[in-house]
Structure prediction request, 319 residues.
Amino acid sequence: MSEQEQFCRSIRVYRALVRLYPAKFREEFGEEMEAAFARLLEEQPDRGRGFFVLTRPWRIVLIELVPTLLREHVSAASEAGETGLRSPRLRKVVRFALASLLPAAGYVTLLGWTLRGREVFLLTMFFLLTGSGMMLARGRGWACSVGAVIGAMLAVALFVVVTGLTEVTNPNIILLTPLLAATAGTLALILATYVRLVMEGVSLRAA
Amino acid sequence: MSDPSPSSVELRILLALSLAPLHGYGIMQEVARQSGGEVAMGPGTLYGAIKRMLKAGWIAQAAGGSGQDPRRTARYRLTPAGRAAAHQGARGLSQIVELAVRSGILQTRAQR
Prediction:
């Protein structure tokens, strides 16, 4: 393989790696990253030693690849949470789903770690934590309710997976899933309505 | 300015740009030169930092950066906010160095 062919092949492989970055980042900087990599290849001291020799530019790229990919994807995900969802309503739903999922996940963890027969305590914790999550998210409007139900469904899914992997239950946890989902959804809806009443107050239409 | 204190990678880039506007590869070269070849920055690290610093307003694209360049690479320049951030970052580091010298962990050139 000639030196030029090695160069072109390296660029093609790097171009494929750049495609792993989030689309927006790639659109903004992909071409420049490729150009910078090409310059690195052109000016490397061990140029011409073959594609499979791990040359200095490739060592740098491979060392930084995973951390930078993770960083950019996390950054893109958080930006999507802020601005990427075009519908403001959908943004609210996602925000409340996250707001209610996090404390609900805490509840599931507690449930797994504490003794049986303390359901009342755990249920209170669930209400307190989920409620405070939604309060912190400044729950308003229907999105608060939808988000809370989605959060509760995700928490149930998490609970089923955690319990399914760690315990043998009778009846089987999978059979109980619809009941759990319905209960959690209803509780979340009641809680969300309560939070909305607290946050928005009760408004009566003038006669 | 969203973050008043730059990371070590960002500080190195700010210092590299304090001399003149540079394109991406130029920044990588300057960082390597300033660190005596100890710091090698790849394109992923560099452009991730550039993205954050553009957002923070520490750097900006230099005018006429890619006009004649067939690779269409932009040049970046330091902004006044970037200079202030570099100052703050460098001052923080110098305080740590002073502390290390006072506690005997680091020796100054005069002490060696």
